[in-house]
């Protein structure tokens, strides 16, 4: 956390040579893209050093710093609810979503134009809560009506997920957000995605080449 936003380049020495490749390659898989997005917040340069010449790194990474006779409180992210697991606190489901400050401000700015949000601000209804100017419905961020299509389109096109199909996009969006008729609207927006339509694989046998018809022997 102390390195984030540093104006000076942080020099990192590692005996893991693949990390150097990771910061220079242009072809990344989905998991690497997610790591790359996180690491983009830091100004650093990675240099490779053989393990035998980098003894200090082992000392720093392997030396335990736990204090004796000190208890550490564990915190469960999920809790059991019947046959399924749910988030232990209302906001855990939406933490990643609201890390995007621009998106957060957009959602909040549209609340004053949304009839449901206006009603909730006046009288809190069952299932709804308001924290830091954001409306939640059972722990999921409430998306105002005028932002629904834009929100689905943005979530569907995230680099980390790469234009997934309707079912997966719906599952991800349902986990972090709420708005009425969520499945129907997700199906409609994703089903009309221009990029998905253009890149959709053919579901039929390839067409044959054109054949010259036989010349008729009589009129």
Automatic annotation (TrEMBL):
Keywords: Endonuclease, Hydrolase, Nuclease, Nucleotidyltransferase, RNA-directed DNA polymerase, Transferase. Residues 2-42 form the Reverse transcriptase RNase H-like domain. Coiled coil: none annotated. GO terms for molecular function: endonuclease activity; hydrolase activity; RNA-directed DNA polymerase activity. Pfam families: Integrase_H2C2 (PF17921), RT_RNaseH (PF17917). PANTHER family: PROTEIN CBG26694 (PTHR37984), PROTEIN NYNRIN-LIKE (PTHR37984:SF5). SUPFAM superfamilies: DNA/RNA polymerases (SSF56672). The keyword Transferase applies. The keyword Ion transport does not apply. This is Integrase zinc-binding domain-containing protein. Residues 143-201 form the Integrase zinc-binding domain.
């Amino acid at each position: 956390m102390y390195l984030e936003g540093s104006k000076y380049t942080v020099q990192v020495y590692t005996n893991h040579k693949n990390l150097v490749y990771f910061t220079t390659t242009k072809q990344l898989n989905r998991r690497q893209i997610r790591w790359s997005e996180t690491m983009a917040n830091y100004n650093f340069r990675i240099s490779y050093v053989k393990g035998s010449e980098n003894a200090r790194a082992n000392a720093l990474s392997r030396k335990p710093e736990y204090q004796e006779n000190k208890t550490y409180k564990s915190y469960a992210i999920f809790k059991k609810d019947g046959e399924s697991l749910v988030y232990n606190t209302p906001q855990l489901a939406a933490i990643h979503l609201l890390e995007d400050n621009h998106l957060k401000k957009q959602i909040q700015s549209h609340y004053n134009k949304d009839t449901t949000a206006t009603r909730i601000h006046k009288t809190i209804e069952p299932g709804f809560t308001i924290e830091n100017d954001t409306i939640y419905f059972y722990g999921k961020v409430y998306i105002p009506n005028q932002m629904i299509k834009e929100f689905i389109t943005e979530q569907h096109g995230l680099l980390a997920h790469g234009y997934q199909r309707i079912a997966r996009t719906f599952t991800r969006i349902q986990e972090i957000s709420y708005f009425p008729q969520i499945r129907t609207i997700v199906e409609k927006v994703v089903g009309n995605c221009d990029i998905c339509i253009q890149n959709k694989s053919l579901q039929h046998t390839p067409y044959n080449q054109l054949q010259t018809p036989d010349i008729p022997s009589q009129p």
